[in-house]
Write a structure and sequence with these properties.
It is a single chain. The protein is an alpha+beta fold. The protein has two domains: 142 residues, 3-Layer(aba) Sandwich (Aminopeptidase), CATH 3.40.630.30; 94 residues, no CATH class. The protein is 29% helix and 33% strand. An eleven-stranded mixed β-sheet has the order 1-6-7-8-9-10-5-11-3-4-2, sandwiched between helices.
Amino acid sequence: MVLPYRAMGPSEAEYPGFMTGLDAHTEQIIMLAWSRILGLGDTALDTASPDERIEAGHSDVRAVSLVQLFGRTALYGPPELLTAARRIPDEELALESRLLEIARAHYPGARILGEAHLLYCEEPPEIEGSDRISVSFEAEHVRQLISRAPADDVARSGLGDAEWTAAVVRDSTGEVLAAAGREAWQEILGHIGILTHPDHRGLGLGRFAAAVATEEAFVNGLIPQWRAAGESPGSLRMAVSLGFAQAGHQTTVTLD
C-alpha cells in the first residue's frame, strides 16, 4: 500500500534543556516499560528515590548500561561491574570513557556503544499530502534503501531489524529517498529509527519519515521513543521539532 504525503521542511527548533512537559501518567508508563527492559519489578523506577541508584544485575548479559530517566538512575549489567561501580558518582558513570574504563578491568574486549538522549512525545506530528513523494509500506522499498546506504548508517538506524517500516519514495522516478522503522519495546514503547540516503540529506525527508513513524506508533497504541546519539545534535533537534521531549539519557558499553 502506498499513501501520498507532502514533506514538511526541516524545523529550526533547538533543544530546550531538560524538561519533559509530559503527563505524569505517561511518565509512569515509560518507567514501567524501562523497569521491565532492565529486568526489574514493574514499579522499580517509579518508586525509586532520585538520590539512589538501582542496580539491575544480570550475569548473562553482554553490556553494561547506565539509564537515567525522569531523575531516576539504574545501572544494568553483570554483578561484578555493578559492584565495581558502586562508589563512583552517577555523573562520572554517564561518561562513556569512565564506564568503558570500569568494564575493561573485567572485560578487556569491551567497547563503547555510546551516549544517547532518550526522548518521548504525546501528540502525533502534523503530516500533509503531496503529489511529489509518497510513503510506501512495501518492505522491498526499505531493502532498496538499505542496500544503497552506508553500512554504519544502516546499523545506527536499526532498520534491518525493525518490526515496522515505511519508505519515502519519489513519485516521478520511484527512487527511495528515506525510511523509518519502529520496534515495540515491551509492547509499550515504539522505538523509532530513521535512515536517509546521503544524496538526499538536508531536505527534511528523514524528518518526514520520522513523522510518519511517530504517527503510526500512536495508531498502534505505543508511546514513541527517540534515542539521539550524543554526537548527533541534528538528531536531537529533529526529535524536538517533531514534539519529542527529553526524559533522560543512556550510556552503554558492550562487553565483547
